[in-house]
């Protein structure tokens, strides 16, 4: 963290500010040529870009942040090539360049594309790839003519802190420094730890306590005691602990304060004032406030308050940056014109060679045509032109802002919000307000956001190459490779995370129908079950009590017309259904066949449909309907899903705060159906904080996220506070510190493990992940109940993870220290 008022992280974690001398001699002179754009460098950079891009996608849908991958990629590249015996700083620079492209694409894709789920669409792989690749290529193309002006002519004025820090690591690696063992250790520990609780279920993923309870008076009357509606919880996550360490104590504390406002003030207030209401409030399903738990109240009311605070914080950061933005754009254009005049020189040094301007002009024209004509994008010519205009403006702005204050304070979200607002207002004036137009508005903003994000990252990479003596032309080619390879898999990661956590939940809406019925179908297998009342009575259990345990095993218990049947979403052998073991509330385990004979029934086929638009009381989303379009099931997505638990089982959900915000803006302008009273509460909370001198954006994100997500971020920030007090050192050194490197490993390892577990869930329709669960394999034992129910068990493991980070941060070796003798 820098001294004085530190930067407030908007979309990425902050890095130390650095400075550079005005007159620069590259580390590798222009007269010297070394292997640079090699096949092995491109392959290694692409692999590392995919790994860190996947971790950034995971973080973006979980907490709305991404992590700068430049320094970890540089450290790993140096270690890899050194192990082969021929490390070279220019080749390592190419690897770092290709690898960092994945992270810059990940934010735009993971922040915007999940909003489609909230608008009643599904995530399409080809749409994801086109948005990521076209936005990324646009960002690189538009930075090519800006390089001479922003990187060379403005050297000494624009410091590009992330690019300078990466150059320091690369030069240190050339002279014998780096400590890749710390990153690799963090990756291994984070991955194994995540697999232990998310795959093997050795301890609870979320620990917490409710601050109220129900007690019975002497007269036999039940009443609520304690702090009604209040609760505390924490996800024992290596990724979130690492994020908290890297963003530091100030931003971590502000974010956690938002969670405190939600769970210890707003939710208890809503419980107190709404507990006596006899009519539902903003709930089409008729649920009363007194019947809601804290998470349900958050989903029904507090989310809108948080969204208002986040939107206001983003707009304030953009407005505050307007003088910088306009100045940056003007000076960027001046630098571009000056650099074009300078290129009339007949001979250029190796370190001055860019791709020709014809590549930029022809490439930009092809981008317009591709965006307009690509069928999956559904973008018309007006929107394609808006993308290019906004793209060039915000790439120029982003590149200059990252040079002045770094990527951590670059208001990418504000740029996307501004694009969305203007685009939606144009659509509104043109009368384009149906669901397809909302899809097109989101696609427009997503491509612009990716272009702006990648433009800033590209500028940092070009600065790194400028400092170490790289060849710009070769680096620009490497950037195209990094964009395309990362774009191929970033969308797949997003789809895997979403589908792995998607739940099909029985849900009817009084005969309501879907607004769009697709040709896609979903089969369902049925198994009539002759349940014996005597068998149930002998075990002291009612049929309704079996629904939760059976659903956990992938079977739905349905009673219709006096008969009972089991339903499954995959074709299970009859023998397997009969032999399925169910753990009852009493703790005993019983086979399905022990309660009644099971036979194979008819296969049902449901139609996939969507609810979109503002004219229905049914929530927007994907549903399964019969041939008459009547809704029977909701296909609740893993990203942004509204159902957090079913039949007593907690569902894995990714809040995707930025996607929720973008969907809120689109719906708010084009459908005008938002509860604006709640949104305005969030707006005024943000304004109050700004008047108090506190940045409202991280606070708003904290209001929006579950407190279980912000609590481990706060813990990581506190560890960073202790390490900085004990270790000392300059702000720049903190970026190479062992704590930062270990945290990067925690983040990447935990996120990749989460993606792999989601993939296993999809590949086997849940059977492999259920087979991995240790408590399920142990059966009804005291140890299995400990694993499933004890909060202290999970807290203990998280404490060990935290202590490891603390000790590494205090005692570890910096990556920027040369080896002895160098």
The dominant shape is globular
Give the tally of β-strands.
14
Q: Counting H and I runs of at least 4 residues, what is the number of helices? A: 30
The biggest beta sheet is recorded as: 8 strands, antiparallel
The percent range for helix content is 55-70%
What structural category do the secondary elements indicate? Answer: alpha+beta
Strand content: 5-15%
Question: Compute the gyration radius: what is it?
Answer: 27 Å
Detail the poorly predicted runs. Answer: 1-10, 13-22, 818-822
Q: What is the distance, rounded to the nearest whole angstrom, between the alpha carbons of the first and last residues? A: 29 Å
Mean pLDDT level: 81
Question: What would you say about this model in short?
Answer:
The protein is α+β, with helices and mostly antiparallel strands and about 800 residues long.
């Amino acid at each position: 963290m820098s001294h004085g008022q530190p930067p407030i992280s908007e979309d990425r974690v902050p890095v130390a500010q650095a400075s550079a001398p005005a007159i620069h001699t590259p580390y590798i002179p222009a007269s010297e040529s070394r292997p640079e754009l090699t096949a092995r460098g491109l392959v290694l950079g692409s692999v590392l870009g995919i790994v860190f891009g996947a971790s950034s996608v995971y973080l973006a849908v979980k907490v709305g942040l991404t992590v700068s991958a430049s320094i970890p990629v540089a450290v790993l590249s140096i270690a890899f090539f050194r192990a082969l015996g021929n490390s070279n700083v220019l080749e390592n620079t190419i690897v770092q360049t290709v690898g960092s492209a994945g992270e810059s694409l990940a934010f735009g894709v993971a922040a915007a594309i999940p909003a489609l789920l909230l608008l009643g669409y599904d995530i399409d792989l080809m749409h994801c790839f086109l948005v990521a690749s076209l936005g990324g290529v646009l960002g690189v193309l538009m930075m090519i003519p800006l390089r001479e002006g922003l990187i060379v002519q403005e050297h000494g004025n624009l410091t590009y802190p992330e690019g300078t820090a990466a150059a320091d690591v690369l030069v240190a690696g050339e002279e014998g420094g780096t400590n890749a063992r710390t990153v690799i250790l963090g990756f291994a520990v984070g991955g194994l730890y995540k697999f232990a609780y998310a795959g093997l279920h050795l301890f609870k993923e979320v620990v917490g306590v409710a601050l109220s309870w129900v007690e019975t008076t002497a007269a036999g009357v039940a009443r609520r005691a304690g702090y009604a509606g209040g609760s505390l919880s924490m996800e024992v996550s290596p990724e979130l602990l690492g994020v908290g360490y890297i963003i530091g104590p100030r931003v971590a504390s502000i974010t956690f304060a938002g969670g405190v406002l939600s769970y210890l003030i707003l939710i208890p207030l809503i419980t107190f004032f709404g507990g006596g209401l006899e009519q539902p409030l903003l709930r089409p399903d008729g649920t009363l406030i007194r019947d809601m738990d804290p998470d349900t109240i958050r989903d029904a009311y507090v989310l809108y308050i948080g969204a208002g605070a986040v939107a206001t914080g983003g707009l304030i950061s953009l407005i505050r940056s307007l003088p910088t933005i306009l100045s940056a754009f003007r000076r960027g254009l001046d630098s571009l014109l000056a650099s074009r005049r300078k290129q009339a020189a007949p001979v250029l040094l190796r370190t001055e060679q860019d791709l020709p301007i014809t590549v930029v002009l022809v490439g930009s024209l092809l981008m317009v045509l591709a965006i307009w004509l690509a069928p999956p994008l559904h973008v018309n010519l007006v929107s394609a032109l808006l993308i290019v205009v906004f793209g060039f403006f915000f790439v120029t702005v982003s590149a200059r802002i990252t040079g002045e204050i770094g990527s951590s304070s670059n208001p990418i979200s504000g740029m996307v919000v501004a694009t969305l607002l203007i685009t939606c207002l144009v659509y509104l004036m043109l009368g384009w307000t149906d669901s397809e137009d909302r899809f097109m508005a989101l696609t427009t903003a997503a491509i612009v956001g990716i272009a702006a994000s990648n433009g800033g990252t590209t500028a940092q990479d070009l600065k790194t190459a400028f400092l170490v003596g790289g060849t710009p032309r070769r680096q620009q080619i490497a950037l195209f490779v990094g964009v395309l390879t990362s774009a191929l898999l970033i969308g797949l990661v997003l789809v895997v995370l979403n589908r792995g956590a998607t739940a099909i939940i029985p849900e009817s809406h009084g005969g309501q129908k879907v607004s769009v019925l697709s040709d896609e179908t979903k089969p369902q297998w049925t198994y009539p079950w002759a349940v014996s009342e005597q068998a149930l009575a002998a075990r002291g259990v009612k049929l309704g009590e079996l629904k939760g345990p059976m659903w956990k095993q992938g079977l739905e218990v349905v009673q219709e017309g006096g008969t009972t049947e089991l339903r499954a979403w995959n074709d299970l052998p009859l023998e397997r259904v009969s032999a399925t073991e169910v753990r009852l509330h009493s703790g005993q385990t019983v086979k399905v066949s022990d309660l009644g004979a099971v036979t194979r029934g008819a296969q049902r086929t449901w139609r996939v449909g969507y609810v979109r638009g503002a004219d229905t009381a049914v929530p927007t989303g994907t549903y399964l309907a019969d041939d008459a379009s009547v809704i029977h099931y909701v296909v609740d997505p893993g990203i942004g899903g509204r159902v957090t638990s079913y039949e007593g089982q907690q569902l894995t959900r990714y809040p995707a705060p930025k996607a929720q915000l973008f969907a809120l803006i689109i719906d708010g302008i084009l459908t005008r159906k938002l509860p604006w009273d709640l949104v305005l509460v969030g707006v005024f909370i943000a304004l109050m904080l700004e008047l108090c001198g506190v940045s409202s954006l991280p606070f708003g994100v904290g209001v929006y996220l579950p407190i279980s997500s912000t609590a481990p971020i706060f813990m990581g920030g506190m560890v960073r506070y202790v390490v900085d007090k004990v270790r000392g050192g300059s702000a720049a050194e903190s970026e190479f510190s062992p704590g930062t490197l270990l945290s990067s490993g925690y983040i990447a390892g935990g996120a990749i493990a989460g993606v792999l577990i989601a993939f296993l869930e999809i590949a086997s329709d849940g059977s492999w992940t259920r087979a991995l669960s240790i408590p399920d394999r142990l059966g009804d034992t005291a140890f299995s109940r400990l694993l499933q129910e004890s909060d202290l068990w999970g807290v203990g493991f998280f404490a060990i993870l935290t202590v490891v980070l603390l000790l590494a941060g205090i005692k570890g070796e910096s990556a920027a220290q040369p080896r002895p003798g160098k």
